[in-house]
Amino acid sequence: MRKYRGRKVLTKTCEYTGCDKEFLSKVRSQRFCSKTCFHKQKSETYKMSNIEKDCPQCGAGFTVKDNQTGRNKVYCSKECHNDSMVVSPAEMVCHNCGSVFYSKRSNVFCSKSCANSGKNNSMYGMSGESHPTYGMTPWSKGQTKKTNEKLAALGENVSKTLRQKFANGEMSNAGESNPMYGKNHTAETKERISTTRSERIINGDYASWFNKGVVHSKKMNKEMVFRSSWEEACINHFDNNDSVAAFEVEPVRILYEAEHGEYLRNYIPDFIVEYVDGKRLMIEIKPEYFVDAKINQAKFKAAREYCDKHNITFEVWTETKINDIKAIPHPIYS
User: Which positions ≥6 away from 257 have C-beta within 8 Å?
Assistant: First the structure.
């Protein structure tokens, strides 16, 4: 050890083979005279050998360093790696409907509908009080876009460009573009949908957009929904007719079988009227042009059978009857 410019320094010899140069250092642990010698010694000491490998995708040979990264490398390039990830579609049989479909994955159902229908649905068998939403009121019940900000905001996130494409016909949900194209509900599902809708109509659970309007009946002391101006005229007629003791709008649900007979449907007549003399009348409002339609005749047949069992008379009122009602002078028309 000696002093250099008033400070204690060490005289050391560079440890890099081929240099052996003496140098002064203030640090006892310094081994090399420069960074150049340090890196040269490091590269020679840790010099790695190469490993030859064969690509399992294309069969070509390639060389990698004998380190962890090189030993884990399997493919010669990203292209071969990506090609190895491509899986050919396999023929599968749906566990629900039994139809044959092709999939690149281990899917067991042909569609989301099959995966969530029947016993595959986590809510299968839950009804009434056992259903987790039993007794809960839908947040949107009785709300409209005018009264609820959440409803008004629905669909606002759709971009103007996307709306314009639909308007111009560049995009469409019609035909094969529709996700439900070629898919049909089972007869059981259709019957369940029909029953649920009819019950909701009777209970008045549908939002106001489903109805044309509401009128207050003084005779029945409650609000009554109408879906056409003809029904509105009938409600006002019953309310102002002294021979009518009471009446109900869409009061019952009647099962009927359509022409194809695939499943039972639900029919809801427009009115049941009870007169002062004890007579009861079930009334269906229908344009004369549609009276003879097969589906309407099936409904009327079921309605007459229901009326025969309950001592009620069934009638279909067309525009002729409605015009006669409107011609009767009472406050609503005078």
Answer: 264, 265, 298, 302
Give the integer Cα–Cα distance in Å for 70 and 199: 68
SS3 category, 10: strand
| Backbone angles phi and psi of 249, in degrees to 5 | -100, 130
Angstrom distances, CA of residue 202 to CA of 197, 249, 285, 290, 312: 9, 8, 16, 23, 19
Let me know if residue 130 belongs to a domain. no
Q: What is the pLDDT of residue 203?
A: 63
* Res 159: pLDDT: 63
Q: What local confidence, expressed as pLDDT, does residue 247 receive?
A: 94
Query: Which residues, listed in sequence order, are joined to residue 313 by a DSSP beta bridge?
Result: 281
| Angle at 320 (CA atoms; ends 241, 244), nearest 5 degrees | 15
> Does 125 map to a domain?
no
Query: Residue 320's domain spans which residues?
Result: 196-327
Range of lowest pLDDT (8-12, 47-51, 58-62, 281-285): 47-51
Count of domains for the chain: 4
Predicted pLDDT of residue 82:
82
53 and 75 Cβ atoms separated by less than 8 Å: no
| Shared domain check, 211 and 310 | yes
Amino acid at 93: V
pLDDT at 277: 93
The SS3 of residue 79 is helix
